[in-house]
């Protein structure tokens, strides 16, 4: 991108989930280096994490943090104003409370008067507020083009088959989706937005966390469906800047393992398995002759020891080839390590992007929303397999073991590693051009809007 004399200001406003905040932050950092002055709006608990992340980064980006004030309810104190720490039963209340922050947001955008708003899927009302003030608004989607094109097609033309057979929903996934949609419609007031208004309200373009290497045809089809130019912004991988030696024990253990011999098992910061499901995963790991790092999480407010939820004697039987971590692990650092050969994941967008970015094949165990489409996208690309499930979505230890063996031990493993490495190279090669193109598009919109005033 050519150097521009005009600096425009952008107000970034993500949903308060961890998987949204940090892609927005990465995009903010990139745009701050492209002649944009960035204001970043979120809740105090999220801004604390963001401030720590910015302090530990080696770059000299300048981003002004702006606090969004949510109503403080007795059951939802400020430290719960992020999806990462809120107990699952309070998630609907958090979403409801976030929708009540329009007054705070109106005050913020009226005070800052940015040249542009970049907003998330859960607050199309923010785009309406910006428009009422004469400020152009652009949607940035942190989910990929494959799920969005599939579900938007389903929303618009449920009786017509989706044009790409690799993407589909199973009966139990369809029922869960329909139940969610019906619940959503029941909970909405008549004057609130429909499920895809965050696309229609976006000014001229939609930014998307993806790259053409893995989603080219789905990007094109989504552009047709939403009648907007979908602009990939690249992978936006958060590179770790942790203190030296902070995770030395994990990396030292991993370094003693053979190349491609280890599976990382992690299902994101907001997904939890039942005790029975954890037992089946453990059975699958025990049945495989592979090394593993397993990140086990329990819902906030629930306290268990690992020994309480895995089969009796499991820890002793796998102690030489398995490491179990409770709560959190340096995911990107583990995926980047040459001993890592596969990633057993729920297939949230951040996880599949990181896996492909570091050239690691995926063992998919999708749970909800965009995750089934993300899983099937990687299967279609030849960079992963999906764990077999029954008609109700259940799985057994044998299903887990079979999928792990395909990606680590069997003849198919080498082909998947080569495909993942090929996609990684393409993704990294696109990265800089994607950021430059997105910056050019935003600068053009700001300039056009300024000239129209």
From TrEMBL:
Biological-process GO terms, alphabetical: glycoside biosynthetic process
CDD domains found in the cross-reference section: GT1_Gtf-like
Protein EC: 2.4.1.-
Domain Glycosyltransferase N-terminal stretches: 9-236
Gene Ontology molecular function terms on file: UDP-glycosyltransferase activity
Broad class of enzyme this protein falls into: transferase
Coiled coil regions in record: 406-448
Pfam families xrefs: Glyco_transf_N, UDPGT
Entry keywords, A to Z: Coiled coil, Glycosyltransferase, Transferase
Top-level taxon: Eukaryota
Family recorded in the similarity comment: Belongs to the UDP-glycosyltransferase family.
The protein, known as: Glycosyltransferase
């Amino acid at each position: 991108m050519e150097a521009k004399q005009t600096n425009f200001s952008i107000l970034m406003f993500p949903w308060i989930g961890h998987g949204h905040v940090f892609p927005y932050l990465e995009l903010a950092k990139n745009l701050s280096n492209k002649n944009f002055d960035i204001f970043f709006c979120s809740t105090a608990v999220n801004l604390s994490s963001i401030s720590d992340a910015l302090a530990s980064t080696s770059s000299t980006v300048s981003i002004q943090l702006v606090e969004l004030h949510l109503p403080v309810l007795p059951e939802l104190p400020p430290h719960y104003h992020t999806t990462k720490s809120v107990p699952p039963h309070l998630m609907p209340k958090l979403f409801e409370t976030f929708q009540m922050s329009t007054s705070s947001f109106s005050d913020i955008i009226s005070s800052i008067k940015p040249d542009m708003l970049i907003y998330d899927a859960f607050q199309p009302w923010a785009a309406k507020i910006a428009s009422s003030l004469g400020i152009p608004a652009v949607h940035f989607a942190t989910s990929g083009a494959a799920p969005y094109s599939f579900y938007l097609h389903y929303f618009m033309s449920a009786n017509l088959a989706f044009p790409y057979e690799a993407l589909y929903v199973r009966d139990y996934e369809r029922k869960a989706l329909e139940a969610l949609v019906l619940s959503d419609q029941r909970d909405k007031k008549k004057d609130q937005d429909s499920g895809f208004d965050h696309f229609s309200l976006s000014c001229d373009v939609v930014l998307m966390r993806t790259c053409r290497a893995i989603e080219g045809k789905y990007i094109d089809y989504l552009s047709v469906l939403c009648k907007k130019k979908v602009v990939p912004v690249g992978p936006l991988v958060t590179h770790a800047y942790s203190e030296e030696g902070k995770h030395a024990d994990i990396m030292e253990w991993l370094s003693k393992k053979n190349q491609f011999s280890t599976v990382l098992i992690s299902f994101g910061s907001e997904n939890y398995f039942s005790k029975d499901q954890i037992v089946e995963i453990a059975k699958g790991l025990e049945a495989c002759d592979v090394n593993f790092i397993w990140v086990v999480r329990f819902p906030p407010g629930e306290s268990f020891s690992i020994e309480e939820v895995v089969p009796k004697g499991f820890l002793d039987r796998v102690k030489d080839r398995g490491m179990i971590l409770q709560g959190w692990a340096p995911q990107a650092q583990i995926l980047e390590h040459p001993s890592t050969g596969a990633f057993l994941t729920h297939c949230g967008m951040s996880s599949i992007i990181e896996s492909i970015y570091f050239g690691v094949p995926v063992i998919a165990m999708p749970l909800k929303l965009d995750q089934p489409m993300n899983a099937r996208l990687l299967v279609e690309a030849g960079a992963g397999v999906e764990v077999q499930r029954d008609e109700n979505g259940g799985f057994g230890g044998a299903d887990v073991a079979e999928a792990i063996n395909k990606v680590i031990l069997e003849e198919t493993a080498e082909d998947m590693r080569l495909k993942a490495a090929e996609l990684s190279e393409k993704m990294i090669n696109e990265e800089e051009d994607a950021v430059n193109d997105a910056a050019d598009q935003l600068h053009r919109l700001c300039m056009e809007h300024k000239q129209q005033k």
